[in-house]
Design brief:
By secondary structure, the chain is of the alpha+beta class. The protein contains 8 helices and 14 strands. It has 2 domains: 163 residues, 3-Layer(aba) Sandwich (Glutaredoxin); 82 residues. The strands form 4 sheets. The chain has a 6-stranded mixed sheet. A 3-stranded antiparallel sheet has the order 2-1-11, with helices on one face.
Length: 320
């Protein structure tokens, strides 16, 4: 069973700078984060977090080879050490990585206003109950409310694991978190081996955690190279990008195109490079069009524009 099968093959997010696609939008209680809607052609401001379906960026677990019913879980082949964490939780207690070695750690970015985040809390508590001290869960709250308000919510939900308030530095250290909930899975050696955005079925978490702890599991493990699926900065290492057709380019032209895609910024408001945006949001119409234009220009020997296009404008429109 695919972990997102119950959602029609999609995870459920509170996503930043996205569009409503068949789900009702949920706005934040903050004047700084206004709601975007894209129903019947109505566009809205880019700083909103909306309640929408999407696909997880990292390779998702799947069934085994054709003819086999064995589940397959995937971990990154070239894992990086988890970012530093040394702070205090919402109750004023110190939280750091010193006690993580030997445990599997789930770093969960969430918010009290996010419906999918609230929905997964019972499953996180169930995982903690099952694996006890062998699993550490650390919640990173992206709420604008005070720690006291988050603590009140956490007590009401029985969230006994550490919860810290997110900071821009902490979010950036994990490569940016454009959707909630997003969880990073850290192995017993303190390395980030998987990332899941959106609701994620508990049975797949159980398989992954059991495998990392060396416990028996019915799943087979495969590995993948992180080309931005976990940390967006690694998109610079990718030689292929979602939705970008390099066919017809010479090897040298492809290198030139990739250099540009890794240096030019998408105009959708995400503040990411074109490569990063293609990895982060495969449905983004801005990075898709701009990336195609870059490939076309490189194939034709054209030089890049000297000035960046205005937000929402394609390179072609700029030159008209």
């Amino acid at each position: 069973m695919n972990p997102h099968a119950q959602l029609g093959g999609h995870g459920l997010f509170c996503a930043l700078s996205d569009f409503i696609m068949g789900w009702v939008a949920m706005s934040r209680n903050s004047a700084q984060r206004l709601l975007w809607v894209a129903i019947t052609g109505i566009g809205l401001l880019a700083s909103t977090r909306a309640f929408v379906p999407q696909i997880s960026a990292a390779p998702a677990p799947t069934a085994g080879p054709e003819g086999s019913n064995q589940p397959v879980i995937r971990f990154v082949k070239n894992p990086e050490s988890a970012p530093a964490l040394q702070t205090k939780d919402i109750y004023g207690k110190p939280v750091n990585k010193d006690g993580w070695p030997g445990k599997v750690v789930l770093v969960n970015f969430w918010a009290t206003w996010c419906p999918p985040c609230r929905e997964e809390i019972p499953e996180l508590l169930e995982l903690k109950k099952e694996f006890k001290d062998r699993l550490e869960i650390v919640g990173i709250s992206e709420d604008d409310d005070s720690p006291e308000s988050v603590a009140k919510f956490a007590r009401a939900k029985g969230m006994m694991y550490p919860i810290v308030m997110a900071t821009p530095e902490l979010i950036e250290s994990y490569g940016g978190v454009p959707a909630l909930p997003t969880s990073f899975l850290i192995d017993t050696q303190g390395r980030v081996v998987q990332k899941h955005s959106g609701l994620y079925a508990i049975e797949w978490y159980q398989r992954e955690i059991r495998s990392l702890l060396g416990m028996p599991t019915d799943a087979r493990v495969e590995t993948f190279v992180d080309n931005g699926q976990l940390f967006l900065k690694n998109a610079a290492n990718a030689t292929e990008l979602p939705g970008v057709n390099f066919k017809g380019l010479t090897p040298e032209q492809k290198k030139t195109a990739l250099r540009r895609l890794n240096s030019e910024t998408c105009t959708c408001g995400c503040k990411l490079t074109l490569s990063q945006c293609r990895v982060n949001d495969t449905e983004c119409p801005y990075s898709g069009k701009l990336a195609a234009q870059v490939v076309k220009e490189v194939a034709g020997g054209a030089k890049p524009a000297k000035t960046p296009p205005a937000k929402g404008s394609s390179i072609t429109e700029l030159r008209k």
